[in-house]
Every structure is written in C-alpha cells, then in structure tokens.
C-alpha cells in the first residue's frame, strides 16, 4: 500500500528495510518461545530445546517464519513443525490449549504473559525488526514527518523497558 501511494507511511515487521523506501528501524522486538501455561519457562531457551518441541508456526513467506527458519538453519536445528497457522490470535489459542509451541515477538504476547495464559522463554540473540517507512517517490507531509519523529522518540524512550518477562 505504501509503495502504491495508498498511505503516506507504514510500520511493519521486516527482516531488513526495503531499499525502495525511506525506512528507519523503529525497534528490535525480542523473540520468545511461547508454550502452554503449564510448561516450565526459563530465562533463555536453546535451539536444541526448540527443535525437540512440536511447533505451530506461520507459513512462508511470513517474515517471522523466515526469521525462525533462518535462525534454526544457522544453528543446525531441524524444526518439528506440526502445523502452520497464519493468524496470530489463533496461533496463541492453539498454544494455550497445549497443541504445541510457537515463536513470536514480545509485542505479540505481552498481554498473554501478563495474564499468565501462556509461558514464554526468551530466545537469546533473536529479535524481530519493526520498521517505520515512507515513500522515496513522494514527499512526506508535515504531519507524516511529525508522526515518524514521535514514533522514533517514543521507541527510544521505551527501549530500556522492552523486556517484559525476565
């Protein structure tokens, strides 16, 4: 929508910023192994532990799935994907019922962790990047420029408050 001019700016998750856009890193969102609420959680989880679990993941070309597959490949882990679901609330609901585990960024699970309806363990060194972008072909309005500045400022302010679990 941004590329075709339907919107002035966009916030999206990406593995890397698009080169055809004016893109800036908004924040790095820590990734977590999300488990049913009765499962034990730890401060950090290893790829060997993740590979031993039945996983419910999004399907390709979803950016969280690509990030997960790339990280597993780099660690030499063979993932046990038992189901693919492309809706985060459904994914979390399936995990809550005990059908498997998933990997999601902190921003997707924060409320579920707070109400203890899921267990979550941080995946060390793995983050999901949130980008704020505008078109290189159309000048940004004054309101759009102020919106981006406000988002970047808020992101910097909250940077130290990002880790909700440990």
Can you describe this structure?
The chain has one domain: 3-Layer(aba) Sandwich (D-Maltodextrin-Binding Protein, domain 2). The strands form two sheets. Strands 1, 2, 3, 6 and 7 form a five-stranded mixed beta sheet that branches. The protein is of the alpha/beta class. The protein has helices at 47-51, 63-74, 88-96, 106-114, 142-158; strands at residues 9-14, 21-35, 44-45, 54-57, 80-84, 102-105, 119-135. The longest helix is centred in the C-terminal third of the chain and has 17 residues, at 142-158. β4 (54-57), α2 (63-74) and β5 (80-84) form a beta-alpha-beta unit.
Which key phrases capture this entry?
alpha/beta; 166 residues; 5 helices; two-stranded parallel sheet; D-Maltodextrin-Binding Protein, domain 2
Give the CATH topology.
D-Maltodextrin-Binding Protein, domain 2
- Report on the biggest sheet: 5 strands, mixed
Mean pLDDT: 89
CATH-scheme architecture: 3-Layer(aba) Sandwich
Uncertain stretches of 5 or more adjacent residues: none
| DSSP strand count | 7
Main CATH class: Alpha Beta
Task: Give the overall shape.
Answer: elongated
Structural class based on helices, strands and sheet pairing: alpha/beta
Provide the succession of SSEs. EEEHEHEHEHEH
Radius of gyration (CA) equals 17 Å
Distance between the termini: 37 Å
């Amino acid at each position: 929508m941004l590329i075709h001019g339907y919107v002035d700016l966009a916030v999206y998750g990406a593995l890397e910023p698009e080169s055809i856009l004016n893109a800036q890193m908004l924040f790095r969102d820590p990734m977590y192994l999300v488990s049913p609420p009765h499962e034990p959680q730890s401060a950090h989880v290893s790829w060997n532990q993740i590979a031993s679990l039945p996983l419910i993941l999004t399907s390709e070309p979803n950016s969280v799935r690509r990030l997960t597959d790339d990280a597993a490949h780099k660690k030499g882990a063979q993932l046990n994907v038992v189901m693919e679901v492309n809706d985060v609330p459904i994914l979390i609901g399936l995990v809550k019922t005990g059908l498997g585990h998933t990997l999601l960024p902190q921003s997707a699970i924060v409320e579920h962790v707070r109400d203890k309806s899921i267990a979550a363990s941080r995946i060390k060194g793995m983050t999901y990047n949130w980008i704020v972008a505008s078109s290189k072909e159309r000048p940004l309005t004054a309101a759009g420029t102020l919106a981006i500045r406000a988002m970047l400022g808020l992101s910097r302010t909250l940077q130290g408050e990002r880790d909700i679990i440990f």
